Amino acid sequence: MMILQYIFIGLGTLFFAIGTIGLLRFPDVFTRIHALTKADNLGLGLIVVGLLPSVESVAQGMKLILCWLLVLGASSVAAYLVARSQVQHDHEEASK
């Protein structure tokens, strides 16, 4: 069971690293947002799955899942706001 936990946590960390590389390497805002949100949400989900077997109670497990769900919501809202801001900026630049 511990080996499976290490695999999930390692994969989650790998997805975080891939998201960071995508943030640094991709050329425009939209591809950066896509890489970052997808990789980070999946990375956090894998880490939560890896941590769930080691929690002491159901309440602690539910807190982990709730944190992951809140991060999913916050991440999608933040990505939307950044993308909308970029679209508005592009529109203003085109109308000049």
TrEMBL record:
Top-level division of the source organism's lineage: Bacteria
InterPro entries documented for this protein? PhaG_MnhG_YufB
Q: Which UniProt keywords apply?
A: Membrane, Transmembrane, Transmembrane helix
Q: List all membrane-crossing ranges.
A: 6-27, 39-55, 61-83
Q: Output the Gene Ontology terms for molecular function.
A: sodium:proton antiporter activity
UniProt-listed PANTHER family: ANTIPORTER SUBUNIT MNHG2-RELATED
Write the protein's name. Answer: Cation:proton antiporter
Q: Which organism is it from?
A: Aliidiomarina sanyensis
